[in-house]
Every structure is written in structure tokens, then in C-alpha cells.
Amino acid sequence: MNPKITAITDRIIERSKATRAAYLAKIDNAKSETVHRASLSCGNLAHGFAACGKEDKSKLRGINHSDIAIISSYNDMLSAHQPYETYPQIIKQAVTETGGVAQFAGGVPAMCDGVTQGQPGMDLSLMSRDVIAMSTAVGLSHNMFDGALMLGICDKIVPGLLISSLTFGHLPTVFVPAGPMPSGIPNKEKARVRQQYAKGEIGKEELLAAESASYHSAGTCTFFGTANSNQLVVEVMGLHLPGASFIAPNTQLREELTKAAARQVTRLTQQSGNYLPVGKMVDERSVVNAIVALLATGGSTNLTMHIIAFARAAGIIINFQDFNDLSDAVPLITRIYPNGHADINHFQEAGGMALLFKELLGAGLLHEDVETICGKGLTRYTQQPVLENGQLKWVDSVDVSGDPEVIATTELPFKPDGGLKVLKGNLGTSVLKTSALREGAQVIKAPAVVFEDQHELEAAFKAGELEKDFVAVVRFQGPKARGMPELHKLTPPLGVLQDKGFKVALVTDGRMSGASGKVPAAIHLCPEALDGGLIAKVQNGDMIMVDGDSGELTLLVDEHELENRTLAQFKVNGHHEGMGREIFGFMRQSLSSAETGACSLFHILDGEQ
């Protein structure tokens, strides 16, 4: 093992000693020596299988057959989740063939950041993760189940499912992906058209044509945003079958993998004699592996918050500094848009997850001896699934990248580090994704231009007021102020200004899209403006240093002057009403800081960080 990664893992284990011990005691107390439904009264059990057929009722009366919960994020508006429509019946049949029963335990909401970007509904996006966790808990609360299958893909869905899965850590759990859509127009072309529209060179018809050619069928969006970063993280944690993440939907291989996932969870139940609850399977080493893989591939910055949140559900305490220090130890070995021109299908064709596992394991960057749903050790994940005469098999993957411009080696990486930097200074603590930045863009010192809404910046850009070097300060976007919406509309105008030769950067207590790229963005700033962060005292013209090399984020204003300034006040301006935002007030107020997961479900005490 790489000694730096070992040392960081050890400090996480030490930091988490008390909370992890309490968690393991909790899930030990929740497990059952027989089927969980054995604790139900006759009336409870009768309600639990009332809608089942005669054969399933007969099985569920006894104590020898497992009952598997299906939790699904299916809806047919969103491309990533539409393929899940047929999964329940496929899963039920596969579990029946093992002698067990599968029941659809509950659905969870799934909203799409792509639909809500720049819209009022985006203010609900991050909070939907906690709603998904709670919805999953409701589905599992009947205590009928001996294992669970989680059907989820996108930005907040998988983290929400993980939080709840680990809360119900006494249950064996397998995650079941659906796969990416076929490649559309190149991502570079899509970005070019967006910037043309931002400059007023084309109209909405041309823009819609390009977007529709990119997002064009069932399946996950193909860029390496939060959705595909989720899939990578779940597989590296051993919660997917090997190679399952990026197989296309509506194919025979995809269906056979779904059947195999259903069968696999039955092999992990108490009744199988091979009991492996997810809460024990996922440990500190598993979480470090997830972060390493995220960094090695230049994945979404949203996962910095999500990993912190779901790790906390398992009693494991992670912070931004862990990401920073692991980034220093992990080379960037993939180029997937926005870190390059390839999409996730090109990554799969170049060797995909199996080759990524080989590279990272070979360099001692992953803990190999962790538990997975397929048994102990990650070596099995260096194989890839194939169909031979209609039968699912796993075979050894390629040893050499099919496209060295997409997957490199740890000896000759694209960058020597993982491209994630934690910035600290008088403005607070933030995260900067450096993996997609152009040469010379990591250090920006320029005067501030202050906004309190991304649409204000867009209007200033269209009015020609931003033709200069500047640091855009977009505040009151944090968890408690707005629910931390992604500020996706900032990317095209700032990209246009950067292309014109201006030195531009962003500082915000909000989030950027998982597809953010070439503009340096100090995001997830803590403390946020509504919590009295210094960002609330920034004025137009103040000099700001954003240094992705040294890790500095400084407001270059005399301390005496700052002491005499008053904090700007948050102007709600209707941001807490409409599109359901008014009913989320209780959750918004209880969200923790970004560095503690921006979560309403777990409040990490200062002494635990």
C-alpha cells in the first residue's frame, strides 16, 4: 500500500473510533438470528404478505426463505431512471428461482439537476438526498426484509440510498445500476454551442437541437458528472457486481447482470450461512477507496459532500482535508469530460472499471483486502462481465488501455495529483477542482464583483459589464440560505470571458455542476454567508487571491477595515416560495455545513471533525 494512503486511512480510523464502535453496536443489536419477519405478530405478518401470491405467502410463513426488499428510483420522465421500469419483475423472478421472495418495498423521488438547472426547483436538489434517505427508511421500516436491492443512478439518489442503506446496516445490500445512454454529439461540441448561445451568436432552436442530440435516449447522461461518479464510487466500494456500472441499458448483458445482482444478495443473508451486512462490509478502507477512485478519475466535486454524509451514516468521520491529502497522493489517470473530450462510453471501451482497478491496485493506491458483495478482496473487480452462449461470465480485462488519451497509467499519469485542492484563508474553507483547469488558470488575483444570484451575473455579462479580470463572488447560495443549488448558469459566461483572455474565477458558498470544468471555482465555502462567513463582507473591488497551487483563499482587505464592515443581509426575494420550496424550510434550516455533508440527518459536533 502507498504509505500516504495508509497513514490517512489510519487517522480516519482513529478519528472515527468512538462513532464507528457505536454504529457497529447498533447494527449488531438490529440483526436477527432468523428471518426478520419472525419478530412480527401474526397480524403484522398477514399485512406484510397480504398482496402476495399463494406460493410467496407459503414461503413467507416459514423461517427458511429470505425476503428481499426492492427500493427503486424509477420514473419515466428521467432518462437515467426509465430503464428501471422492468427491473422489479426481473428481480422477483430471479429471487424466486433461488427459493426466496422479493417485494417492492418502496419508491424514492428522483429529480434531475439537468432539468432544474437555473430553475426554482434546483433549490430542492440537495435536500432531496435526505428525503430519499428518509423515503428508503420508510420502505425498510416494516422489518419484513432480510436483504435489499437499491435501484438508483443520479446525483442525489445514490447518496440518499447509501445513507439509508448504511442506517439499516444490518441488512445485506446490493446496488443495481441501469447504465449510460449511447454517446451523442461530442461534449466539446456541446460546450461550444452553449458558449455560442451565451454570446448571442445562435438562438434557442440551435441550442435545443444540440442539447437534444446530446441527451437523446434512455440511460444516464454520458459526461463524467455526479451520476457517473456515483456509479464509479459504488463499484469501487464493492456494492456493484464487477463491471456492472457502465453497461448499456436494454441489452441482454444488462438484464443478466440485474438477475445476477438479485441472486447475489440472497447469498449474503443470514439464511445463506454467509451473512454479510452492508454496515460491516463498508468500513474506513472502503470509503478511502471510494475517494481514491474519485480523485484518480477527476470525478464530481459533489461527492466531496456526499461521501462525508454517507460515511457519517456508518459512523465514519471524513473531512475536506482528507480529500486534499489523498489528492496529493493519487495521480489523475483518466480524461473523461469535463476533464477531457471522451465520455463514459469511451472510458468503457478503453478498458473501463476493470482496467482502472488494475492500475490502482497495481500501484498500491487501493485497499485490496476489503469486503465486497462478491467476497473478500478487490481482485475480482479486475474482471469484466461478458455473455458466452447467453451465459453471464467474468473474464480477465485488458492489461493495456485501448485509448491512452482516455485511460493512462499510474507511471505516466495525466497529472501527478488527483486534481482536488482544499483552499483555506480568511474567507474560510472551500474546494477547488483543478483537474480540468487550463495551464496558468490555477492562480487568480483579481478584484471582486459581488452577486447574490447566478442570474445577476448572467445579466451583467449580457450587459457587457464583465469584460475584465475579476473574481465573481456569488454568495447566499449555501445550504441554509438556498439549499445549495448548483450554479450551472455561471459556466458558459465565465468560460466565454476566459476564452477572451480575461483572468476570471468564482468564489461561492454554493455548488457547481458535476460537469464544471475550465474556470477555477472555489466552491462549498464554509462558513456560508448566512452563517456569518466573511464572504458576507466582501464588496465590489476588493482584491481576492484564489491560489490552486498553494491552497490560499484570501480576501486582501485590511483586518481593521473588515472589523468595521457589517455583514450583508440575505434577501429572500421569493427564493423560499414556489416549486415546493416553502415546505422545505425545516430541512433547510437544519442543514449542516458543506464540510460536514450539508446534511439535515447528521449533525457532526465540532470536536468530532
Automatic annotation (TrEMBL):
[4Fe-4S] cluster binds at residues 154, 221. It comes from the Bacteria. Gene3D superfamilies: IlvD/EDD C-terminal domain-like. Residues 68-379 form the Dihydroxy-acid/6-phosphogluconate dehydratase N-terminal domain. The keyword Protein biosynthesis does not apply. PROSITE patterns: ILVD_EDD_2. Residues 405-598 form the Dihydroxy-acid/6-phosphogluconate dehydratase C-terminal domain. Signal peptide: none annotated. InterPro entries: 6-phosphgluc_deHydtase (IPR004786), Dihydro-acid_dehy_C (IPR042096), DiOHA_6PGluconate_deHydtase_CS (IPR020558), ILV_EDD_C (IPR056740), ILV_EDD_N (IPR000581), IlvD/EDD_N (IPR037237). It catalyses: 6-phospho-D-gluconate = 2-dehydro-3-deoxy-6-phospho-D-gluconate + H2O. One of its GO terms (cellular component) is cytosol. Its cofactor is [4Fe-4S] cluster. Pathway: Carbohydrate metabolism; Entner-Doudoroff pathway. Keywords: 4Fe-4S, Carbohydrate metabolism, Gluconate utilization, Iron, Iron-sulfur, Lyase, Magnesium, Metal-binding. Binds 1 [4Fe-4S] cluster. Belongs to the IlvD/Edd family. NCBIfam families: edd (TIGR01196). This is Phosphogluconate dehydratase. The gene is edd.
